[in-house]
């Protein structure tokens, strides 16, 4: 989706054309969309995406940091494989939910490259909307040493809380659902070794309630049992 890269309306129109508006609309969640979806889903399933992996390598200057002290958030990067969850939007609200999701993920035209990816689920493969990041993006951090990551985890805070809280929430959500991500667990150990509070209890109570409330809406619909898995990265992504 390289056309009109700075025109969010044009990019949304292009995505709508690819979807067609007639079949089911699926969304792939690999980080905060798992524990803070903020949309009503008719169904959710565990899913595996090949050719992409989850990486804490996107700068956040609003949600989890500031321009003066950028934070980090996860992005879906090319290479490897990623286990997450797919969510099927209710047909009667899919259009409205897509707009809400677009406003959340594609602020100001967006940093992500949204695309439909084949997601393998226990019931078969579905094409789901995923928010990916190009290595050519100015918001891609490249490889960061552990010392730099720890400094960000220690200091970066944005409108939705700290990068540390974001990492801990994602780690906890995946762990609770039987998904093992070796790099995330390694980062949690690095953070703990640096004396940082790595439990999700360090997140403000109000933010935790929002996340739990949002997930409870999605979890009230039919779902499939999660199976243990892992997110793997290419050597260049650590």
From TrEMBL:
Matching InterPro entries: ChaC, GGCT-like, GGCT-like_sf
Catalytic class of the enzyme: lyase
Low complexity bias spans: 217-238
Pfam families: ChaC
UniProt cross-references to Gene3D superfamilies, sorted A to Z: Gamma-glutamyl cyclotransferase-like
Ranges where the record places region Disordered: 195-238
GO cellular component, one term: cytoplasm
GO molecular function, one term: glutathione specific gamma-glutamylcyclotransferase activity
Entry's EC annotation: 4.3.2.7
Keywords annotated in UniProt: Lyase
GO biological process terms, semicolon-separated: glutathione catabolic process
Protein's UniProt name: glutathione-specific gamma-glutamylcyclotransferase
Organism this protein belongs to: Rubrivivax gelatinosus (Rhodocyclus gelatinosus)
